[in-house]
Design a protein that fits this description.
The protein has about 575 residues and is mainly α. The protein has a domain of about 375 residues: Sodium/glucose cotransporter. About 70% of the residues lie in helices and about 0% in strands. The strands form two sheets. It has a two-stranded antiparallel sheet. α8 packs across α17. The termini are far apart.
Length: about 575
């Protein structure tokens, strides 16, 4: 059976499962819609959190990013995993104890200010829109190859599906849908990696295959071969880092603290019954995430060796066009692989110097890896289902953040306090519909590859939410004026920096022109420090938080009881 036919069957069955779960667990109240009535088991919530967390950036783009960046790509692994530890230990239980639906809810009440709530809503919407644009791009990449449509059509298909089950099920439907999606995506991610690892190194576990010798009897280690191929073809050594150390630290820290400030991840800890369960959920989520994150570097290395050898031939002299691998032709139709015969010798050649005749989009590396290795068609189709699951699971969580920020935080808690639950739910669904349309546009016209776009979202979260949340829990004197000023300074600075180097003057985006040599992906760290500095400076010239607020902070830091989620 053809790849396309199998893809229709496997992806179709997975969609039927997701939509069936969404219908079965549809939301009947705002409590169901926002936090699943606080009744999700920690293991199930950990699995759903892992699916929510492992977006298209993790599933589709991260291994491709590591494949092209080599050692430097590990900053994404360190930042994203480290951030989850920070969230689990320092923030999640306290936010769960506070008992509010959303991050703007926490900031609005902790800083006793509708202005603080409104600024937090604005930040949540900006972060979520940037993040979801990357997910929609990921959906487009998947469909463009396996359904043989262009990326724009693939994005539209994904928009329709995620809109349906997000609005129908709310957080309750999304949670149990994401449990199923985690099972699909982790199976789809690891099965091809096991096949390729056995093929290239003889090791069953990809994590062991990464450090093993290749299976051709040469006794050469995989990474040694990859280093040699990289140098011979004009690339730097795969295991050598080239980024400036300060930029590496900035990117890692931005991703780490951005994780702890992401509203669509934080809201997951309101879906469990008890404060203790929030911490347990985070532990389970980290375990589930580690399965994919420890596999990604192996997939990256396997795929890079396959690219070098299949596109350049065993003697690295290029491959005649008529003998080009079938996966090249398949992806060429999508526009994600491009080839131009500069020297008119009728041969493909992929390098990093004047000999190069090919462009390979890094977002295809994971999806193309089983084709490169000549694996069975059902493995290729399974990977497509996993990629769609990863992109849609995170998209659903982000849409819920956007809809709740508008309907609950902006309207219910600010502009229209008298609306009924039914009316609030209607506005939430309308907001999600509008969000899907805007996110779809940026999915079709993204500012970068998937992981890069998602890194911007983490930087924005680091610069806006993290300081306000951290000081809101651990610094009881912090007042409304300081928190609002800090959030505004952090988000405006970081967003302006990204927009300038990615939209206004992309040609100037080089280390020589960056502030302190820090790239747009890492500038959220500077934005975070600016947020702290502005907030603490403003606090010096304004009154401390009121005594009753400081007492409330003390009760959060020394939690007793569950703290049921409510909108009161």
């Amino acid at each position: 059976m053809s790849v396309q036919a199998l893809t229709f069957i496997i992806v179709g069955l997975s969609f039927a499962l997701y939509i069936g779960i969404a219908i079965w667990s549809r939301a009947g109240s705002t409590n169901d819609f926002y936090v699943a009535a606080g009744g999700v088991h920690p293991v199930a919530n950990g699995m759903a959190t892992a699916a929510d967390w492992m977006s298209a950036a993790s599933f589709i783009s991260m291994a491709g990013l590591i494949a092209f960046m080599g050692y430097d790509g590990t900053v994404y692994l360190m930042g994203w995993t480290g951030g989850f530890v920070l969230l689990a230990l320092c923030l999640a239980p306290y936010l769960r104890k506070f008992g509010k639906f959303t991050v703007p809810d926490f900031i609005g009440d902790r800083y006793y200010s509708q202005t603080a709530r409104t600024v937090a809503v604005l930040c949540a919407i900006i972060v979520s829109f940037v993040y979801i644009a990357g997910q929609m791009r990921g959906v487009g990449v998947v469909f463009s190859r396996f359904l043989e449509v262009d990326i724009a059509t693939g994005v539209v298909i994904g928009m329709a599906i995620v809109f349906f089950y997000t609005l129908l099920g709310g957080m309750k439907g999304i949670t149990y849908t994401q449990v199923a999606q985690y099972c699909v995506l982790v199976f789809a991610y690891t099965v091809p990696a096991v096949f390729v690892s056995m093929q290239m190194t003889g090791q069953f576990l990809p994590q062991l295959g990464l450090g093993s010798t290749v299976a051709d009897g040469s006794g050469e280690y995989l990474l040694e071969r990859l280093d040699g191929l990289s140098v011979e073809l004009g690339f730097h050594q795969y295991t050598e880092g080239l980024r400036d150390r300060l930029d590496v630290i900035a990117i890692t820290l931005a991703l780490m603290v951005g994780t702890a400030g992401l509203p669509h991840v934080i809201i997951r800890f309101f879906t469990v019954p008890k404060v203790r369960d929030a911490r347990r959920s985070a532990g389970w989520a980290l375990l589930f995430i580690a399965v994919v994150y420890t596999t990604a570097p192996a997939i990256a290395a396997f795929s890079k060796v396959n690219i070098f050898e299949t596109l350049n031939g065993p003697e690295l002299q290029g491959v005649p066009v008529e003998e080009a691998p079938s996966w090249v032709r398949s992806w060429e139709r999508t526009g994600l692989i491009e080839w131009e015969d500069h020297n008119e010798d009728g041969r493909l050649f992929f390098s990093n110097d004047e000999r190069n005749e090919m462009h390979v989009d890094r977002d295809i590396i994971v999806l193309a890896s089983p084709e490169m290795a000549g694996l069975p068609n059902w493995v290729i189709a399974l990977l497509a289902a996993g990629g769609v699951a990863a992109a849609l699971s995170t998209s659903a969580g982000l849409l819920l953040v956007i809809s709740s920020a508008v309907s609950h935080d902006l309207l219910k808690r600010n502009l229209m306090p008298g609306i009924t639950d039914r009316r609030e739910l209607l506005y939430a669904r309308i907001a999600a519909g509008a969000a899907v349309g805007i996110a779809g546009y940026f999915g079709i016209n993204p500012p970068g590859f998937v992981a890069e776009v998602v890194a911007f979202a983490f930087g924005l979260a680091a610069a806006s939410f993290f300081p306000a949340i951290l000081m809101g829990i651990f610094y009881k004197r912090m007042n409304s004026a300081g928190a609002v000023s800090g959030m505004l300074a952090g988000i405006v600075f970081t967003l302006s920096y990204i927009v300038y180097f990615k939209f206004i003057n992309p040609d100037a985006s080089t280390p020589d022109n960056w502030l302190l040599g820090i790239s747009p992906e890492g500038i959220g760290t500077v934005g975070m420090l600016l947020n702290f500095a502005v907030a603490l400076t403003v606090l010096r010239f304004t009154p401390d938080a009121p005594p009753e607020v400081q007492q409330m902070v003390e009760s959060i830091r020394y939690p007793r009881g569950a703290g049921a989620a409510s909108d009161h």
